[in-house]
Amino acid sequence: MAKRYWLMKCEPSAYTIDDLARDGSTNWEGVRNFKARNYMRDDMQVGDEVLFYASNAEPSGVTGLAKIVKAGYPDSSAFNKKSHYYDEDSDKAKPTWFMVDIGFVKNFHGTVSLETLKSTKGLEKMMVTQKGSRLSVQPVAKDEFEIVLKLAKKI
DNA sequence: GCCAACGTTGGC
DNA sequence: GCCAACGTTGGC
């Protein structure tokens, strides 16, 4: 399958691109949204590139790059009663929730802000720039991805 | 299977 | 911290 591009959101209080740079890679546990789950379980492939997006930040926006290093597999935090993400309805034999592992690629040392994304030609249809776009795992078109990379060079 | 109520997300 | 927009739940 051809390489795909994604955007993954996270609040800085939970995890940042700096944390990923330190850790090298991390498992993206805790996604509890069916659409996002489906993307991770069905569509993400090792090598796909990811825009790392900081939500609820100042400013919110893309802060770096990551890549998929492990394709979708069951999210073990759903089975962990001590986890914040525990879901009693998820069955180990037939897991409800999935996650992927992402690896560090690049830290922008700045933010391509949502405001910039919204005002950049070619990104009008990008999911994250749409009003009320709450999905935490989103597909990104190849040209949108490349435009964001260009914007990152100007930070 | 509809839809109101509820909880959560996320920009501001 | 507010609140609009959204996804999910649950009563019917």
Please give a structural write-up.
Helix content is 23%, strand content 32%. The protein starts with a strand and ends with a helix. It contains four helices and six strands, in the order βαβαβββαβα. Strands 2-5-4-3-1-6 form a six-stranded mixed beta sheet. The protein has a single domain, classed as Roll (ph1033 like fold), CATH 3.10.590. With 155 residues, it is of the alpha+beta class. The protein is globular, with a radius of gyration of 15 Å. A hairpin with a 6-residue loop joins β3 and β4. The longest helix is centred in the last third of the chain and has 12 residues. The model has no long low-confidence stretch (mean pLDDT 95). The structure holds a DNA duplex (12 and 12 nucleotides).
Task: Count every beta strand, where a strand is a DSSP E run of 2 or more residues.
Answer: 6
Give the biggest sheet.
6 strands, mixed
CATH topology: ph1033 like fold
- State the strand order across the main sheet: 2-5-4-3-1-6
Domains, number: 1
- Uncertain runs: none
Report Rg.
15 Å
Number of helices: 4
CATH architecture assignment name: Roll
Q: What proportion of the residues form beta strands (DSSP E)?
A: 25-35%
User: Outline, from the CA principal axes?
Assistant: globular
